[in-house]
Queue: 4 jobs
Job 1
Amino acid sequence: CVQLFLLIQVILNCVALQLSLPSDPSYYAGVVELPVQVGTPKERVSAAQDVYISIIESNDTNDLDILVFPEYVLNNREVPTFVPHPQLNITPCFEPDYELFLVEISCAVRARRLYVVLNLIEKELCGPSYGSSTWNPCPANGVRFFNTNVVLDRDGRVVSRYRKTHLWRNEYKSHAVLQQPELATFDTDFGVTFGHFICFDMLFYEPAMRLLLERNITDIIYPTYWFSELPFLGAVQLQEGWAFANDINLLAADGSDPAGKTSGSGIYAGRHGRLAAGIFETPTQRLFKARVPKRGANYELPPKVLPAFSPQLVTPRLTALDTFRDYNVDIFETQLLAADFVNATQRVCHADFCCDFEVLRRLIGSSADLAAYRYRLGAYRGNETTLIRVDRSEQAVCAVFACTSDSLLSCGRLLPATASVANQHYFERIRIAGVFPAAKRRLIMPSTLDGLMLPLDVAQYKWSESPPQQQLQNTLVSLELTTPKNDLLTFGIWANYFTELPSSHNLDHLQPPPVIAPVPVPAAPGGSSNNAAGCSICAAVSCFLFLL
């Protein structure tokens, strides 16, 4: 009996040390949505440290292999920390040469025995002969800052570090950017190699796409503090669309400040859609967990069971999440549909890029006391667009999107919370198709959104590509709504062609060399210019030589 007891203890200890094995077809992941704490900068960091440790040490993380925290929430420039290079194999818990919050979290991770991904403000010393190679010049005080992911393994050791490549607006004025973007990856003891990047990086070719295409990474970690934009770039909407288009696993942890446009976290399994996700109207602390299938393993996800559809005049809406408006739609070629339309079959072309639409609705009911969205069909292909007005972009879009009136300027906006909104019709069927031009750098994804600011479940639509978008050929893409839907804000195909046109962000060190205009020559006395006088002299000399 004693021997059996000891054997059971050994087995339990092994399970506690490593929940998933390389031979297992799945692993267990968690992502945390979390608001910034209140108080002075130092008080916010101290409070965040306590929250992070309480989550790491809670019973809710007992079964997790890996846990991801959001961008921007942990610390700030008032309390930055040095971060050791992963090759040094440093464990801050017993090498406490770093800011206290990193030391304390390292110890909590070692005690809990799971992988943890943090995002923090890193500081680095720089000078004429030392420091990283960045686009930004070294500040006069010799200290620069990075927006950095830090990965701790089960021992609390720093095993990976990534410094954000594509900063957000005013971040460029306070943070440095490496001249050579990092491709950050790390291996785990449960047989999965992860890549990771931060927030706005998702909309660019490097490092995000390079990790997938050059390193064959199939599982991505994504701390973010995303600012949602309608109609195409809501937080969960983009996360699920990006994971679906690339058919990879994505662990996305967002901050939580809905009044400031930030909320939306989730765990996604490529073409299988979201395993767990949420978006909120008030600042929320929430742990999302899911068992994630390893790519190529024989792991059967439970079948999705959609609730039975019933036409509903009024459905829940999420309105307290503030959003940006996508001003790109103002240059789309669009067609406004009639308020009472039930059947629309139409081709809309922007130059030589065309989208074919079939939209079928059924009447639910109407009331003069209730407002309703109007809808437009839209097509666009070109590079006169931006990514949330931060960087230039090249896009191709075929979409049906909601507007609050018949004005194009009202598209990409929500009817206010004070309005009583009705679904006077429900969508029975939508089919959108377009030929997306071949390009070496492109990503074509479904972009869908309902009144709860969540994308439609992948079981609600059919997606096809012919040939697959990875091939360097024109690709016929179609998106078809296969189950009825009451409320709809966006249903479309959104393609990012990853423009290589530069954006200097009004930064001095990124400006191109000035073009020096030629200095005009002052006119000579008598109204003739020096050039004219010179020509007259040349002509006189020529005549003299001719006479000779």
Note: Helices lie at 2-17, 41-56, 100-112, 171-174, 205-214, 235-246, 530-547.
Job 2
Amino acid sequence: DAPKVPDSRGDSDGPRRGSLCDRHCAAINNAQGDLGELGCHLHRPRVPPATSTPSCCQQHSEEVCESCVVKTTLTAENAVEANKLSNNYKFGFKKWKSHVTARPWEDRSEIVKELYSDLNIVRGSGGSTLTCGNVLYLLLFGWWLSLLYVLVAAVMFITIVGAPYGRLCWDLAGYFLWPFGKVIQKVEVPKSHQACEAGVGESSALLGGPTALRWRPRCWLGTGYWQRASTAAWLCLGYPALALAHGLVCVTAWLLIILIPVAKLSARATSRVLLLPPERVLIRPLRMTEVPLEGEVILCCYHAANPYYYKYAVDGINVFAVNLLPLVLVTLVLGYVDSPNHLTGSAVKFTLALLSIMPLSYYIGMAIASISAQSNFAVGAVVNATFGSITELTFYITALIKGSREGNRCYAEVVKSALTGTLVGCVLFVPGLCMVIGGIRHQEQRFNSRSAGVSSALLFLSVGGVFAPTLFSKVYGKLVCGECHNVTQNPLGHYLCHNCHFDLMDNNGTLYYSHVQPLVYTVSILLPAAYLIGLFFTLKTHTHIYDIHISDCHMPGHHHSAVVHWSRWRALVILLLSTLCMSACADLATEHISPILTNSTISQYFIGVTVLAMVPELPEIVNGIQFALQNNLSLSIEIGNCIAVQVCMLQIPILVLFTIFYPTNFTLVFSDLHVYASMFSVVLMNYIFMDGKCDYFQGTVLVMVYFILLAVYFFAPSPSGC
């Protein structure tokens, strides 16, 4: 959205900008620099080209400098957006793609401007109206909406006093059958016709050319519109049915998203056209080059569908999140009102609760980004640390509480599967999918290998710390099997055993309480400490690793103050309400997951690793894909790495701390499958990210490995005791 090379403000910026370019040029001259890691900020003085001194970057290949500028120089419209962009590159902060402020209208593309038009703009050439979207409108809405107008017209003709509205409905029936390429205008009546003299029945046409009688203003035009008998008949017999039909069309078209122009058409017809006096409404076809000269244009639609409406936003909220918000209300009402499951079963309620988590995750993410962008670093760090993992923790804690109350170990195993699934998905699937989709547009994508190396090191540390109690228990625990069979009929022969596990409670739990549990508490203290050290390293002492420059230059002639979508207080209220609704949806999900776990033929491992792990992360996946499409793969990778690190270094220690105050069945001892899948994923991810560049093939490898692991979980037997 922004120019790749922003204008400079001379030499007033100090040594920061010049030093980076000098470092880059020195690296080129010495042939020892890593062009993928150094930042080159190309700044052009505001002097005529003839007197400009070529910068050092300009003395080398344009290709090198252009790639450097794209990767390291970002331009923001205002200070709030600049703060948000800067937060995206801070370790531990939530990465957010969407704007938190209103973008200047003149900076938007023509495609986006068309999305927000009010369907009252007449273009000289609208192109052909015979399109797939228009035919879809005819099949879904046009035919029955036109038929309804014909029926209402018949009713109004029967009332006699409503005959003018009958003629209007008859014309609107033809319009709504195929409204494309037609225009509805509000006729302006001259003052000379407001008071008619006796015997004068008609006046000349307001627009050029002959006009039908009903469009010619009559003597009773000046009388009060709302005092007419025809208006009363219309508001009682005709308008309600048509308003209800247009409301149905509006809601349906809005939910389909690509048909939002139809929703605007119906809304404007209900609020404007149907409430005007019939003699003030003019409907006529619009020729390719014909433009109305007089009268206000109320409706002028050319196309019923627009595939770019996935970009549409309402007050900064994406249209998908807006459409999914009623789903949250339906889930809460249905879940708590119909607790005996008279209306729907547990499977439906579980699905609704899980789907409701997606829009709530979006609102929580946008609220965090809005507060962080409008606050200082300390406030942003506290908000991100407090609410960054609230979505996952809410579900995990409610599941552990329910499992503890019922004495069911399956809930703890499902939580472990969800933790492992989040780790594996964010290490393999999220960056792999971003590489594949970004590689379709860009042949090769580069990223900051230093910053990725920091995240990889933290991942190795966190995975080793999380699975240390598991490895300890396997070394010193006692192997206990459920049933064994002698396959050789020899007492000293081989035995085939099933449902084997390492028992930590042997000898009254001496091994667990004296050795494993202290190790778990030690790891739970060391991991958050390592996370804080990583924050201090990346945000304080080694900020140059990211080498990001947020330009304070704007496009020529565009100097706008920040108009935020959500103020800090509004974002805080939305954050708290979303968190509360998230807790309720998580409670409903855990309440109705029990029948699925007991009756489903699918392994509980698979349910936890896929559905429960990845659904809450869908907004993050979308953000990563958007960054990859803009050739900013560094942020796509950081999204997955940051979530994976937070799972091991924050979420798991918090769950361990929670079990101290509220005893549950959760122990930091994972199955072998979880250990092998997690370690293999981290090793593979670190191998792929070593050279600082990637393409769609490497992304395909990561995605394929992820699906192979899913197949393993799918065919794996359920945990023992479930």
Note: The chain has 24 helices and 13 strands.
Job 3
Amino acid sequence: LVWLLVLSLAWLGPALGGEDKDEEVIEEEEKEKKEDEVLSDEIKEEDNVLVLHEHNFARALSEHQLLLVEFYAPWCGHCQQLAPAFAQAAAELRNESSPARLGKVDATAQTALATEFGITSYPTLKLFRDGNRTHPLAYTGRLDSQGIVRWMQRRAGPSATLLQDTDTIAAFINSKDLVVIGFFKDLRGDAAQAFFEVAAEMVDTTFGVAEAAELFQVYGLSADTVCLFKKFDERQTNFPVDPERGLDTAELTRLLRVHSLQLVMEFTNETSNQIFSAKIPHHMLLFLNKSSPEQLSLQDGFRAAASGFRGEVLFVVVDVTGHGADVLPFFGMTAADAPTLRLVKMENNRKYLMEQDNFSDSAIRTFIQEVLDGKVKPHLLSAEPPEDWDTRPVKVLVGKTFEQVAFDETKNVFVKFYAPWCPHCQAMAAAWEELAERYKDREDIVIAEMDSTANELENITIHGYPTLHYFPAGPGRKMVEYKSTRDVETFSKFLENGGTLPEEPPVSEVRGQPPCPGLSPAPAGQGEGSCRM
């Protein structure tokens, strides 16, 4: 028996302890394998995107003439949204045998690279050209697959097509609804080089370039000129190059964007991006029901008024039964309010309306000029105050009641400006309620909220949701913006210190995680999510 026991232990001993030992060995081998992979300069791919780290980054730069690199964080929602489009763009560029490739770096793991390239938000995209590591170019295109592809194509090849004879240039002009052609007597000169820079950025517009003297004559030109050719409105618009100042890229880009738009735009799903990216400071809107012939006829006077304000005011027709139905709540309107006119100042979303709608071209011109001259007050939206607005811990403010509550000299008022649809507002709702419950018996502190999609204020502009403002007691109509963490304890500390907090590093630095662009509040700095307007 003793012999059997010894034999059993001798046989079972390695097995009993061997499994753990084998697992440890396997784990160690896998760990060593991963370390070897990281230390190697081998470049692996995921969905046609190069997976880069500090040990293979230099090799990637040396092997690829144009390399667009996304610096991302695994937890970043915007990075996750971008991933499919980024992979699709990588596949398209690879399939067309482009010299341009796409790569990605997990900047939370590759901290040395993140520091080297100054990564402070996610995702950040940078273009590396010809192996140059010291001066990458910031990505300025759209964050969709076609936007990425076009942006890279413009940098991989000539940004403008060389047009050498009359037949070629005529065919080029007729090939699109809109083309831009730069006429330069020296294609190596500063003006031409500035033109190529603009062409590289405006990837949704087709650019050509010409230097032949006969082409200058055909199109009535005597000096360097950029021409915009359209199949609508003015057929040819010339932008002469100032012989002393040269060609300013920012100004040319602005002029091309403005004049690329139709004199009167219709607000649709296809045109909305053009309308908002044109950066025209005012929008004049005609709301109408396109199924009504009588309302459709109002467009004639609207168009007649438009030509005198090009570049300053963009004229837009909004069909209240079509795509425009979605924007009616922003104006506090319903389809039954059509036809009607509104002017919007884009920098602060202030809205202006006539005392009584008059759709003649002269009346529209007069109204617009009076707004531009500061003679018309903005029309401010306000909901009706709920009957129980001041009986709950969180006081419900509207435009009509805001002044009397927020600027009550006997109260310290902490206000949350929110949008009902904003997920970040919804996420902090419980904390705000708990804060109000904590201070409901304090006579000198009011916790309040206002739906900024239904209420507007004359002297306070809300750019993103949620926005938090503190209005301290006393004279002077003071206002302090809250920019810290959105939790009950930090809110309380802020209130107990009279609307201030001790100096602390930004939340993103404390966590070691830069904020996602578009998620940082407006104005930026809170280090937590918000929704842009």
Note: The two ends are 84 Å apart (CA to CA).
Job 4
Amino acid sequence: RGGARARSGGKMASTAAGKQRIPKVAKVKNKAPAEVQITAEQLLREAKERELELLPPPPQQKITDVEELNDYKLRKRKTFEDNIRKNRTVISNWIKYAQWEESLKEIQRARSIYERALDVDYRNVTLWLKYAEMEMKNRQVNHARNIWDRAITTLPRVNQFWYKYTYMEEMLGNVAGSRQVFERWMEWQPEEQAWHSYINFELRYKEVDRARSIYERYILFAVLVLVHPDVKNWIKYARFEEKHSYFAHARKVYERAVEFFGEEHMDEHLYVAFAKFEENQKEFERVRVIYKYALDRIPKQDAQNLFKNYTIFEKKFGDRRGIEDIIVSKRRFQYEEEVKANPHNYDAWFDYLRLVESDTDAETVREVYERAIANVPPIQEKRHWKRYIYLWINYALYEELEAKASKRTRQVYQACLELLPHKKFTFAKMWLLYAQFEIRQKNLPLARRALGTSIGKCPKNKLFKGYIELELQLREFDRCRKLYEKFLEFAPENCTSWIKFAELETILGDIDRARAIYELAIGQPRLDMPEVLWKSYIDFEIEQEEYEKTRNLYRRLLQRTQHVKVWISFAQFELSAGREERLPRCRQIYEEANKAMRSCEEKEERVMLLESWRSFEDEFGTDATKERIDKLMPEKIKKRRKLQAEDGSDAGWEEYYDYIFPEDTANQPNLKLLAMAKLWKKQQQESEAAAMDPDKDIDESQT
């Protein structure tokens, strides 16, 4: 068999040395993709599933004598040593080896393995823990102490060693030893939980004084080492004193905490805890002082819990005034946030000012007003200033009516008037309010000076009217005349001013001046309400019973306008003149109006005139005049006209009513045609009625 293998080996070597054979590649006939594709994800999933398949358990080996046992131990130790030799840094191999030796009660061997492992990696926490647990499990207390001492000496910042060590000593009943370990731990200045563990340890053995000294040491450590120690440590210390009924000590701890944190690092939780402590001691006034002190100094956004607890306290122990104070304080905080977010939100300022005016002193209100008026609108346009100006008005009214400070009120008005850009716009109400304030202070020269300054800087109709009304109330008619003259020079188109000026002269009995004012007014080239002015002038002449002048005014007005209401008013004036020839005069006016309105395109106005004329004839006319006016009344007909849209397209037809007047000769054929159409329609209706009822026709013929 060996010779055959040698011969075959030699043959293969000779073939490889000669010419290397290339394997044939199978030709793929169908290169289309398969219907079921195998993805990489599928391959990985199948591999993972096959990993979960259970392997058959190894066969059980029964050891029957000591020799077999020693052989088994030798094989296992060799396996563990080989694993350690392969990779010494894998601590799990050392731990498994030691635990196996421990299971065989080979404590000395296990201890040797742990020592060898510590030589490899003494920083491994798990290794120290397993080593110490093995010693404690086998009741080797001194060995365990030795290991814990070595562990905390080597790795003093691993808190788990200290916890395990102190717990072991406490379980052994060695309280002094456990306290000694805690003291060694505290020298390393550990974290907060370590101190509390020490305190709880002392409290378990009723050592309250020792616990208090530990709290003091921890607080001192926190003050000296930490820049800003946590508030909860002070609170825990105070609650510890309160729990053991040392109320004076607890209050002192809270006071020390408040003093330590000061006003720069105030925390609402400290003050809430302090207030609840005082509440438990029934010191309600102290509670209220604590809450108010904190609310005045802590930023509002950080004091939500403080507000809530203060409100609950006042509802439980306070009166109505106290509850209102806390609610007002909370609303003030809300308004402060609103105005801080948008300083030009004047509605928020109004609400805020209304709140502080109702519940605070004058200095606080003034401070809020000053903050509000400091937010001047950035754009010099009147629409942006309309809300802002009311801040100044309310400020001045508050100083005058609530604070009773006339000097400050005058300063507010003057500051506001200096701030306004009068060259661009002004607010007449501010000038008038200032003048009225000075009058209330019985300082008439200052009031006149203010209004005169306003007219000189920024004349407005409202300023002139307010100044004139002031002088009228003071019965200074010469000043009123001068002001009206200035007013009409400023706004000659203002018909109301002309009318008021003339009425003033009428009241004063100077009829000629009043008539001259009216003449000047109607002679102006441009007027805003000329019809009101003419009507006032006509009513003035009628009151003076100057009928000829009134007629002349109507004739002059008709030269300017042929409006139907002017003709009707003229006719009614003639009717009410109260003379014998009033009816012929009135009828003559209607005749003239009808002739003048024939050329008017607005047929509705002409119809209005004829209806007024017919009403006059129905009341004062004869049968002949009534018949004549009836013949003048138009026919109302319905017509259609074509509509066009905005783009010029056809929009359909529209029906409308038109009037045909008998007097218009151009419309006579239309009237004749309309009359003939009506007659034909009447005949058609009669013939249809006869056809529907033949018996009636026979009866009528017999009759």
Note: The longest strand covers residues 650-660.
